[in-house]
Specification:
CATH architecture of the largest domain: 3-Layer(aba) Sandwich
CATH superfamily of the largest domain: Aldehyde Dehydrogenase, Chain A, domain 1
Oligomer: single chain
Strand order of the largest sheet: 14-15-16-13-12-17-18
Bound molecules: nicotinamide-adenine-dinucleotide
Helix content: 25-40%
Strand content: 15-25%
Length: 484
Amino acid sequence: MKYPQVRNYIGGTFATAELPALDVFDPAMGTVISRVPLSGVAELHAAVTAAKRAFPAWSAMPIKQRVQVFFRYKRLLEQHIDELAALISEENGKIVSEARAEVEKAAELCEFACSLPQIATGEVLEVSRGVECRIERFPLGVVAGIAPFNFPNMVPHWSIPNAIALGNCFILKPSELVPLSAGRIAELLTEAGLPAGVFQVVHGGREVVEAICDHPDISAISFVGSTKIAKAVYRRATNNLKRCLALGGAKNHLIVMPDADQEMAASNIVASMSGCAGQRCMAASVMVAVSATDHVIARAAEIARAMVPGKDIGPVISVEAKARIIGYINAAEAQGAKVIVDGRHVTVAGKEHGYFIGPTIIDQVRPEMQIAQEEVFGPVLAIIRADDVDQAIAIENASPYGNAASVYTESGGVARKVMERANAGMVGVNVGVPVPREPFSFGGWNDSRFGVGDITGKGSIEFWTQSKKMTTKWNREAGTNWMS
Ligand code: NAD
């Protein structure tokens, strides 16, 4: 194995414990590169105990002082970007340029955390003569974040900088499919000066996730993953009276109007459906082609066909994921859809055992087909034809998900209509991956998000803190009123 077995990071040290473990694969090669321990209640409890020890001093530190760690940490992310990107690429499979973008986004998330002293200020008002009301934000205590496989570095950073800068002690449960990046995050946070116990990593799968949901001393949980597990985690956490924000899967629709700029629309669509091998919750999954848009489809097919697997597009995460995705394509074809770009049979020289699928575009998909309704999470674009924008919006609205939707058009009126009526939390106009950049918050609707608010940006301040309302009177000469 290239890397020794991954270890939990508890109380400022990497813990060695005899635990059952799973193999970790390099998806591009199909080889085992490490092993990940499957922690249970005891390991989680050790992390919670260390976090509780660290919390009083960390939360008592002024926020301006706390964020100094993230100024230093952001620099470290930038200095180590090559190494961090290589590690992401190795454990997740995405190509290095995509892995670098992930680290750049993680740095941007830290930049936002560094601005929290300017944003997360309290409020104060003299509500009647001599009586002052003020609101201050307080951290929640020990909190946790549970992450998916598709962004081993960035998604943990949706929660880590803000939760910690706002005064909490944070326990990360990475995906067991991509556990390596978390160790480097822990090392770099420590190098940046974060005290022991403020950030910890507990590896594992279902058992430790359930332990997080059940632990009485964990106050809040952010979860990112599939809808099925998001629902289970949200139900279990809130049943235990915890605050929970659980982001789920997606089925993003990209509406293309006949007046769309052909080159921009075609290249954006292919980039959106194939980036990170289609394993992004913001990936285009369905193109709703309105009326005379054959020219855009033809150009998108041309661009997709020219992509070189192994160079322009990485593998999917596992042998099971590859089989599942190919199953969706086969089923759509059997139901009468037309595979116009076929990535099912690709091989990459020197990486014959990697889990590669080339970009795949399927035309003549009907809304009732499985491929039109379920999250495929691979480099597959289903094209559904529509006569007009109202029909296109109706198709989008019928999805139970609601992460993202986009429209390609030159008409402001059509764009505004889609922005207003799309049943999704993040909407783009002439943008294939409408991810809000900081300080704007990230979060979907419907089956793509359970809980209130958004996970990043200003939305996260509400989630990671509780407000205390204080009413004071120091000015006795002001007289009395109904309050005192
Ligand atoms: P997943 O739901 O399988 O796993 C997510 C996390 O849950 C992992 O840490 C995993 O260990 C844990 N887990 C898995 N099974 C569990 C169980 N039975 N009980 C408790 N915990 C369990 O998701 P994934 O395959 O790692 O990630 C891909 C999914 O994540 C896709 O559906 C994608 O759309 C979604 N995603 C959503 C967003 C978003 O912002 N909405 C962002 C990234 C990924």
